């Protein structure tokens, strides 16, 4: 990839921070969009709630990667929290898309974070980018989230939606919460354990985002998941092997619903997602198997 000027929102998050590091190491000129007062030359001020972006400082950007948004699993899904989750994605994406479209020289590509929650519960059936939207709050959220990028598409900017699965990492996200539990020997399957988990190693997630930026072809939804999803039961066993810990514990579905409320439905739901467009574009996964993905996470 040639040296580029790239702006990133959500640069302090799990994926964003890893992406900024990777791009910087490759020699790219990276700008981080922040909400606080500027304290460095590599920062751009924005306010996603008010829909404002300092477009002057975005001049010359060839790509924008938009990853900002409130954490889906960070808090119980009250009515207020669901509004916050939706607003943080829709308002933020609309602000970035409009800012990109307003630039005298718009970026060549806008890569927006998204989620495989779009597909809902697929059971044992496969889903790819041509599959229809599912049911439930997350599916509705993702549809509105992706639609908010319309100003960029209308301006002729290549716009891709990185529908990410469960990122295997110790640093954060859902998997970051699993590692301490399994290291303590308290890990086990969730519910029946038959639900499919579509995972991706953090390093492959970053490589895939960079691939989307570099290729001139990928636009629209792009699934960022390893090629072969496994069941929660199989992943539980893999975590036990990697950490040399027992995995005898089981968290009943009823207990999950009491602890997590409505979000438990998504934890217990099954998503068997195939990254068809990514594979068709020539992307090669470095850690396609779960043991490899967990091993990479333990090295990070």
Short account of what is shown:
This protein has 300 residues and is an alpha/beta fold. Helices cover 39% and strands 20% of the residues.
Protein traits:
300 residues; Rossmann fold; 16 strands
General description of the model:
With about 300 residues, this protein is α/β, with parallel strands linked by helices. It has a domain at about 5-170 and about 200-225 and about 275-285: Rossmann fold (3-Layer(aba) Sandwich), CATH 3.40.50. The protein is about 40% helix and about 20% strand. The protein contains eleven helices and 16 strands. It has helices at about 15-25, 80-100, 135-145, 150-155, 175-185, 200-215, 230-245, 255-260, 265-270, 275-280, 290-300, and strands spanning about 5-10, 30-35, 45, 50-55, 65, 110-115, 125, 160-165, 165-170, 190, 195, 200, 220-225, 230, 250, 270-275. The protein has an eight-stranded mixed β-sheet with strand order 4-3-2-1-5-6-8-13, sandwiched between helices. The chain has a two-stranded parallel sheet with strand order 7-16. Helix 1 links the parallel strand 1 and strand 2. Helix 2 runs parallel beside helix 3 and helix 7 packs across helix 11 (about 290-300). The two termini are about 25 Å apart. The model has no long low-confidence stretch (mean pLDDT about 95).
């Amino acid at each position: 990839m040639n040296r580029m000027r790239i702006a990133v929102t959500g640069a302090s998050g799990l994926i964003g921070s890893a992406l900024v590091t990777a791009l910087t190491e490759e020699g790219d000129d990276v700008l981080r969009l922040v909400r606080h007062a500027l304290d460095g030359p590599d920062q751009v001020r924005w306010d996603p709630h008010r829909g404002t972006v300092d477009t002057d400082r975005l001049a010359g950007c060839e790509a924008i990667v938009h990853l900002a948004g409130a954490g889906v699993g960070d808090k119980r899904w009250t009515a207020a929290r669901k509004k916050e989750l939706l607003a943080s994605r829709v308002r933020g994406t609309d602000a970035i898309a409009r800012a990109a479209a307003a630039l005298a020289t718009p970026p060549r590509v806008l890569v927006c974070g998204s989620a495989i929650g779009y597909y809902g519960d697929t059971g044992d059936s496969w889903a790819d980018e041509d599959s229809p939207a599912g049911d439930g709050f997350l599916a509705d959220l993702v549809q509105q989230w992706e639609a908010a990028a319309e100003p960029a598409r209308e301006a002729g900017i290549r716009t891709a939606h990185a529908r990410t699965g469960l990122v295997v990492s110790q640093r954060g996200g859902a998997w970051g919460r699993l590692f301490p539990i399994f290291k303590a020997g308290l890990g086990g399957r969730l519910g029946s354990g038959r639900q499919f988990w579509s995972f991706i190693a953090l390093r492959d997630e970053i490589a895939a985002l960079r691939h989307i930026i570099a290729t001139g072809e990928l636009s629209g939804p792009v699934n960022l998941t390893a090629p072969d999803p496994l069941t929660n039961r199989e992943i539980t066993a893999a975590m036990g092997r990697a950490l040399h810990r027992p995995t005898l514990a089981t968290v009943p579905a009823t207990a999950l619903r009491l602890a997590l409320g409505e979000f438990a439905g998504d934890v217990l739901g099954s998503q068997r997602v195939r990254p068809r467009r990514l594979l068709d574009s020539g992307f090669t996964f470095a850690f396609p198997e779960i043991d490899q993905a967990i091993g990479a996470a333990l090295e990070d």
